[in-house]
Design goal:
Blueprint (H helix, E strand, L loop, with lengths): L4 E10 L4 E11 L5 E12 L1 H18 L4 E6 L2 H7 L11 H11 L4 E6 L6 H14 L15 H4 L9 H12 L17 E7 L4 H5 L12 H17 L5 E4 L3 H13 L5 E3 L16 H7 L1 H9 L11 H18 L4 E6 L1 H11 L6 H4 L7 E6 L5 E8 L7
Parallel strand pairs: 1-4, 4-5, 6-9, 7-8, 7-9
Antiparallel strand pairs: 1-2, 2-3, 6-10, 10-11
Helix pairs in contact: 1-3, 3-12, 4-6, 8-9, 12-13
Protein name: Phosphoglycerate mutase
Keywords: Isomerase
Enzyme class: isomerase
């Protein structure tokens, strides 16, 4: 419904902090209090704050799926409410990527506000989160847990509505599945997914020499052009139709994207600025050994936290914000279609990290070859399937 306003109630917690963790989120119509969506998931071992942020993210994603234009977020986590409202700094580096992900979702609404509420007014989300924590701890969710008040009076701060047995049953039904539809093995129709073919650009002079290559516009080498041609042939053999080839603005990507688009019969080539590589600042054009020698402390800090930027450069938290923005644009522009994305190591790694629900260590452990191909499907309900990571079979002999 265009212009719809919703309330997102979210909660999360851990048994032990850190310990077995889970979150819950509920989306309600702001006027009637009707429950429009529920989300609940066990997330393994995590802290209370991580689980709370995950609940917020799930709630915002669910609100987006309802077509909401405006959102009021209600949580009993003072920390998340104050940080997302911009009144408190995010000092914990581990929470910054989650806050960045939430901020990327916030930009997709006309307005988002944050309200702290006491825990007793957040019982529906709390019930979902507790059931998810039970599952994370290997327990069967208790049917005697307090349930949520589901009537409009409870949502507006008036008299508390009586417990709703059907609401409790629903909360346990969702949590007992172990996750929401986003992480379910339930088959989905393939023709409703947006399929993304993610390609790192081909080799450049910097690639050959092991140099940091960020915003510098280094062209493809002769070998890189050959790799681009091989990637174009591989893509043409994998898919029957492509809606667009979307590229970083740097020439090492647009050159490869142009070759791929031409091989597909001239499909549109779209330049997306948010797919540009990380800005490596003072490290641009230098080898890892040179950086280690000159900036040892800065390099250690950068490797330890995605919130740390190279001197004069950009952090992976900042890159994540714009990659999330680019991904959201792709899903909005090409629902149910196939899109080829030609980008760089950092944006492709971040997209794969988030699709696989991996930790930030993934960014430094995954190797992506020049012209390596990764493939993922994303469904309208937020479900994801990563089908291929760094496939290089098409590069044999080059």
């Amino acid at each position: 419904m265009p212009g719809r306003r919703v309330v997102v109630e979210a909660d999360g917690g851990a048994r032990g902090n850190p310990g077995p963790a889970g979150y819950g989120a509920v989306v309600r119509d702001a006027g009637t209090g009707e429950v429009l969506a529920e989300r609940s998931e066990s997330i393994g071992v995590a802290t209370n704050n991580v689980a709370e942020y995950r609940g917020l993210i799930a709630g915002l994603e669910a609100a987006r799926e309802t077509g909401a234009a405006g959102v009021e977020v209600r949580m009993d986590s003072k920390l998340v409410v104050e940080q997302m409202a911009g009144r408190w700094q995010i000092k914990n580096a581990g929470l910054r990527p989650l806050a960045a992900q939430a901020a990327g979702l916030v930009r997709r609404f006309d307005s988002v506000s944050y309200t702290w509420i006491p825990r007793e007014r957040n019982r529906h989300a709390d019930a979902l989160a507790n059931a998810a924590m039970d599952l994370a701890a290997g327990k069967v969710p208790s049917v005697s847990r307090d349930t949520a008040a589901t009537g409009p009076a409870a949502e507006s701060g008036g008299a508390e509505a009586p417990a709703d047995p059907s609401g409790r049953a629903k909360s346990h039904e969702v949590a007992a599945q172990g996750s929401t539809a986003k992480s379910s093995w339930e088959p989905r129709p393939s023709d409703t997914a947006t399929r993304l073919l993610l390609l790192r650009h081909g080799e450049t002079e910097y690639t050959q020499r092991g140099r940091y290559s960020g915003r510098g516009d280094v062209p493809l080498s002769d070998r890189g052009l050959a790799q681009a041609g091989a990637a174009a042939r591989r893509v043409a053999g994998l898919v029957s139709s492509v809606a667009a080839v979307v590229s970083s603005p740097l020439s090492r990507c647009t050159s490869m994207a142009g070759i791929i688009a031409g091989g597909l019969g001239g499909v549109p080539l779209v330049v997306e600025p948010d797919l540009i590589e990380c800005d490596f600042g003072d490290w641009e054009g230098r080898t890892f050994a040179e950086v280690r020698e000159r900036w040892p402390a800065e390099l250690d800090a950068w490797l330890a936290s995605p919130a740390v930027a190279p001197p004069g450069g950009e952090s992976f938290v900042e890159v994540t914000i714009r990659v999330n923005r680019a991904m959201a644009k792709l899903l909005d522009s090409y629902p149910g279609e196939t899109v080829v994305v030609v980008s760089h190591v950092s944006p492709v790694k971040i997209a794969l990290r988030d699709a696989l629900a991996a930790t930030d260590a993934f960014l430094h452990r995954l190797y992506l070859d020049p012209a390596g191909l990764s493939l993922m499907d994303i469904w309208p309900d937020g479900g994801m399937a990563v089908r291929t990571v760094n496939d290089t079979a098409h590069l044999a002999g080059i």
